[in-house]
TrEMBL record:
Keywords: Metal-binding, Zinc, Zinc-finger. Residues 8-45 form the MYND-type domain. This is MYND-type domain-containing protein. It comes from Skeletonema marinoi. It holds the Pfam family zf-MYND. The keyword rRNA processing does not apply. GO terms for cellular component: nucleus.
Length: 140
C-alpha cells in the first residue's frame, strides 16, 4: 500500500491511486472515475502528453548532439568558428548541407543530420524566445 494518497480528479476522494498513464498529471480512484472525467480531461491530457513527448525527444536529441560534438571535437575554438562561419554563409533558413558537413568533419551523414538539426532547433528556440520577449514588451 502506498502512503502517498492523491485526490481524485473526478470525485474528489483523497484516496486516488491510479494515475493517468498518458499525462501522469492527474489521479483517479479507478477506471470509473477516469472514464467519467475523460471528456473534460481529454484536451489537457493530450497537451501535456505532447509536451512530455517533445521534452523526451529533445533530451535524446541533445544527448546525441553532445556525443557527436565530443567525438569529432566540434567544440574546439577552431571548429566552433568554422561551423559558425558556415552557418553565417548559408543563412539559418537555408541550412548547411548534411553530406557536405559530414565530409568536412569526417562523420557519417546521419550524424551530420542530427548535429545540424539540433543547431536549427537551437536557433528557432532563440528566435521564439526573442519573439516572446518582444511581445511582452521587452527588448525594445
Ligand atoms: Zn474518484
Ligand atoms: Zn491525462
Amino acid at each position: 500500500m502506498s502512503t502517498d494518497n492523491h485526490q481524485c480528479a473526478a470525485c474528489g476522494a483523497a484516496s486516488a491511486s491510479k494515475r493517468c498513464v498518458s499525462c501522469k498529471s492527474v489521479w483517479y480512484c479507478g477506471r470509473d472515475c477516469q472514464v467519467s472525467d475523460w471528456k473534460s480531461h481529454k484536451a489537457k491530457c493530450k497537451a501535456i502528453a505532447a509536451d512530455i513527448a517533445q521534452a523526451d525527444s529533445h533530451e535524446i536529441h541533445k544527448k546525441e548532439f553532445d556525443k557527436i560534438r565530443t567525438k569529432y571535437g566540434l567544440s574546439t575554438p577552431e571548429n566552433a568558428e568554422k561551423i559558425a562561419n558556415m552557418l553565417a554563409d548559408t543563412g539559418a533558413n537555408e541550412g548547411v548541407s548534411a553530406p557536405k558537413f559530414a565530409e568536412m568533419f569526417g562523420m557519417s551523414t546521419t550524424e551530420a543530420v542530427v548535429f545540424l538539426e539540433w543547431i536549427k532547433v537551437g536557433i528557432k528556440f532563440k528566435e521564439e524566445t526573442l519573439d516572446t520577449a518582444k511581445k511582452a514588451g521587452f527588448g525594445k
